[in-house]
Amino acid sequence: MQNQSSVAVVLVEPQSPGNIGMVCRAMKNMGLRELLLVNPCPVQHPDAYRFAVSARDVLDSARIFGSLAEALSDRHISIATTRRHGKYRRDIMSPVEVAARLNAQIDINRAAFVFGREDSGLTTEEVAQCTWQATIPTDDEYGSLNLAQAVLIFSYEFFKARSSKGEKSGRQLAAAGDFESLYSHMEQTLLRIGFLNPQNPDHLMRTFRRILARSEMDSRDVAIFRGMMTQIDWATNEYKGKKR
């Protein structure tokens, strides 16, 4: 199906070769081929191939990264899948909502579904690196899903959305790597002028990430923000500390 290849599945520190194999099978069922692995358990493992069945090609072509930031560097949209809600986990969409929104933008943007560890999911920092957040509604009594089940549900909803007609966006968003450079620059500048608490800069930086992710900035927007940070750096060259 057209542009299924624009969407990758990212597994962060998967712990079971068998789960990786089952994820490959779920992906291929729904037309997805690109698997990105962040610090995984052994991948070329008999269990991985046994559970992949006829999706061994997906397993063999999987790429391994040392960090989530590296895996997402060329992605314009990334979806953190999470079961938990909280202070830094807001505006959480369902798989159906994600699929519809992604379908409107995927013709010109590269995306990734991001799944965390089988036992603990994604960290707050990893969720903050993603553009959107999503969860699978489940019964309150037992909400835990197998990793491959979760991948299959999100992949299936996207597969269905790609079969439907809908309004499309012709605007390419900034890639995650550009955003990470902006956030790094922002943090350094805001620490320097005393806006961020040096003991806990992540508190406000996560808020900035959430605000800017909602704005769906393109590369020109990011360049403007980088220029503003550079101008602040220049203007505050003689800055001696936060005004008391």
What features would you describe in this structure?
It is a single chain. The chain is of the alpha/beta class. It has two domains: 4-162, Alpha/beta knot, CATH 3.40.1280; 176-235, Helicase, Ruva Protein, domain 3. It contains ten helices and seven strands. The chain has helices spanning 17-29, 46-52, 56-60, 68-72, 95-105, 124-128, 147-162, 176-192, 202-215, 219-235; strands at residues 7-12, 34-38, 63-65, 77-81, 92-93, 111-115, 132-134. It has a seven-stranded parallel β-sheet with strand order 3-2-1-6-4-7-5.
Features:
2 domains; Helicase, Ruva Protein, domain 3; alpha/beta; 244 residues; Alpha/beta knot; globular; seven-stranded parallel sheet
Here the CATH topology of the largest domain equals Alpha/beta knot
Structural class: alpha/beta
Give the number of DSSP strands: 7
Shape: globular
CATH class of the largest domain: Alpha Beta
Return Rg in Å: 19 Å
Tally of DSSP helical segments: 10
**Widest beta sheet: strand line-up:** 3-2-1-6-4-7-5
Into which percentage range does the β-strand content fall? 5-15%
CATH H level, superfamily name of the largest domain = SPOUT methyltransferase, trefoil knot domain
Give the biggest sheet.
7 strands, parallel
Helical fraction? 40-55%
Summarize the helix and strand pattern as letters: EHEHHEHEEHEHEHHHH
Low-confidence residue ranges: none
Oligomer: single chain
The average pLDDT score comes to: 90
Domain count: 2
Summarize this entry quickly.
The protein is an alpha/beta fold. It is built from 10 helices and 7 strands.
